[in-house]
UniProtKB/TrEMBL annotation:
The keyword Transferase applies. This is Acyltransferase. It holds the Pfam family Acyl_transf_3. InterPro entries: Acyl_transf_3_dom, Acyltransferase_3. GO terms for cellular component: membrane. Keywords: Acyltransferase, Membrane, Transferase, Transmembrane, Transmembrane helix. Signal peptide: none annotated. The lineage of its organism: Bacteria, Bacillati, Cyanobacteriota, Cyanophyceae, Nostocales. It comes from Nostoc edaphicum CCNP1411. The keyword Transmembrane applies.
Amino acid sequence: MYKHIKPLTSLRGIAALFVVIHHFSYYTLPKTGSTLLAYSDFFRNGYLWVDFFFILSGFIMTHVYVGDFSLKVNSSNYRSYLLSRFARIYPLHIFILSLFVGLEIIKIFLLPTSAFTGKFNLTALFANVFLLQAFDLNCPPLFWCDTYWNEPAWSISVEFVIYCIFPFLLFFLLRNSPKKDLIIYSFTLFSILLLIAFSRGNLDSIIGIPSIARCGLECVLGIITYKVYHRGNYKKYFNLNLLAIIAITWIILIMNYYWSYWRSLHDWLVLPAFCLLILALSVNNNGVISKFLSSRLMLYLGTISYSIYMIHWFLQELLKIFWFYEFHKAFGKGFTEYEILTSLGAFLMIVLLTASLTYRFVEVPARNYLKSTIFAKQ
């Protein structure tokens, strides 16, 4: 049985909220983004927290499955692992996808716009049902896809691909010496820089098929980071609280600015800081940061983080449709700065409340049902 690393659960919730703020501020109500830019570019760079998710996923999955795949990968443990991963991500995905279908049906009756067209076409729906939304071969040049009904769900499509190869990846990487780990980590970082530089110049645009490389490479960073954590040698030489402060300061300094000219380098530089933050907080200690992240409220935020991440885009679409139907104008048109910030706060509360409900009544029951009934017979 693996040990629960509480601060990392809480970090997942914080990262999910940052993604929500980024999406609301720059897609639903862009005036919010303009207002926030007067203070910082932190939330403009919010898409980088998806890369934090990928690194953290590699770390946590290694923590959970290191005992299963350190010696061998056979059909039995591989099947059990893959079914568990499927049960983790798919039920909530398909539930929210059904909500989007309902929203398209509502458009037919309430709005003077066409339903099931554009990104909400039936071909894209088919791809989403089968977790293939990242594989639109018509995306020129395979870097920008219009197949995501639920925009954040592009990441679970590529994550599931990485899930399929993860046990084999783990099996081979666990055998490396610390020196080889350093070489692999450096090579992986350099590969990500090349991926950014020779695709679209920033991590935000690397979706579709190239995002498989984005997710896979960052997963490797997470695995190597876990191996450092597992060895524990760094604790002899470094103060964990100091490491956490350095990592947080590093992240804030990068996220606070938006380098238009050196965009690829900007996005790349934050990745080692994410690794350092995960490493520093993976050991529970009596520091202020660890205590805060281990509190019940923060742990609950992390517990419902997947629901937060998956439901918020639907709520954005619902809000825009409702607002147009009710007031016959785009959401946020004519808003004052006070109304803009109030809208953001209210939206975050709605997301948290809805995510709590979907976690309790959809995510957990569906996952448990799959594991205890259908998959138990496999």
